[in-house]
Amino acid sequence: MDRLEKELISLNVKIRPNTLIGPVLTLDKLREDGYKAIFVGTGVWNPKALGVKGESLGHVNYAINYLKDPSVYRLGDKVCIIGAGNVAMDAARTALRLGAEVHVVYRRSEAELPARAEEVHHAKEEGIIFDLLTNPTEIMVDENGWVSGIKCVKMELGEPDASGRRRPVEIEGSEFVMDLDAVIMSLGTSPNPLIHSTTKGLDVNKRQCIINHLLPVLKPLANPVGREKREEEGDDLELWIYYDPLLGG
C-alpha cells in the first residue's frame, strides 16, 4: 500500500484518508465543490445475513469481519462456518489453527461447493469437517444469551433452479441440533448503502450495486506519459481519492 500510495502521488493524485463519504460529505456536495466526475469504488464489505432466529446473539460473527483480526474473537472449542465459498474456507482454516474444532455447514452437495477445489482440498487436509446437504434453521442460545448450537435439517437435491444448480429440498423429519460455541456466517457480501442512500438519482440493482452513471466517466490515465499528453492538450485534470479505512473504501 505504501508503494502504491507513492506511485499515485507521483502522478499528482491527491489522497484524503479517513474521510467517510455519505452521511455528511455526500456526492452531491462533491459536485457542488466542482468535481467534474466521480468514480465510486468502495467494494462490497457488508456481510449478508442468513435470516434465521438467533442471528443477533452473542458469538454469532461474520467471516469478513472475523478475518480482519481473528485474535480479538473468543470462539470457544467448537465452531460452525455457515457457507462454503473461498472466504468460508479462509475463516474455517483460521479458526482451526487457533485451536477450534471447525465444521463447514452447506446446504448443497460437494459437487456444488462454490469454493475453489484447491481451497476445499487444503481445508480437508487440515482437518475441517464438512457437513454437507445440511441447512441451518435456527441458532440456539443458552441461559446466558450465548450460542449453544444450531438447529439444522438434512437436505436432498431436487430439480435444477434458475442458476442451473440442483435445488436443495428439505428431508421431512430430519431435524437435529449441532452443539457449538460459536457461529461464523460466510454468505457473501454487498455494497455499503451509505453512498446510494444519500445521493439523489443514483440507482442500484437488486445486489445494491450502482447501475447508472451519476457523472461522465473520465478516460483512464494509464501512465505518466498519458497524463503529460493530456496536459499538453490542455486537459487540466486534478484527481482526488477519498477513503475511510474502517469501511474498506
Secondary-structure blueprint:
Blueprint: H1 2-10, E1 13-16, H2 27-32, E2 46-47, E3 60-62, H3 63-66, E4 78-82, H4 86-97, E5 101-105, H5 117-126, E6 129-131, E7 134-141, E8 147-160, E9 166-170, E10 176-179, E11 182-185, E12 189-190, H6 194-197, H7 224-232, E13 239-242
Parallel strand pairs: 1-13, 3-11, 4-5, 4-11, 5-6
Antiparallel strand pairs: 2-12, 7-8, 8-9, 8-10
Helix pairs in contact: 4-5
Q: Could you characterize the architecture of this molecule?
A:
There is one protein chain. The protein is an alpha/beta fold and 249 residues long. Helices cover 22% and strands 25% of the residues. The strands form 4 sheets. A 5-stranded parallel sheet has the order 3-11-4-5-6. Strands 7, 8, 9 and 10 form a 4-stranded antiparallel sheet that branches. The two termini are 14 Å apart.
In summary, what is this structure?
The protein is α/β, with parallel strands linked by helices and 249 residues long. It contains 7 helices and 13 strands.
> Helicity, in percent?
10-25%
Strand order of the largest sheet: 3-11-4-5-6
How many beta-strand elements?
A: 13
Major β-sheet profile: 5 strands, parallel
Strand content: 25-35%
- Judging from the principal axes of the Cα atoms, what is the shape? globular
Enumerate how many helices there are, as a single number. Answer: 7
Distance between the termini: 14 Å
Structural class: alpha/beta
Mean pLDDT: 84
**Poorly predicted sequence stretches spanning 5 or more consecutive residues:** 214-235
Assembly of the depicted chains? single chain
Q: List the secondary-structure elements in sequence, H or E.
A: HEHEEHEHEHEEEEEEEHHE
CA-atom Rg in angstroms: 23 Å
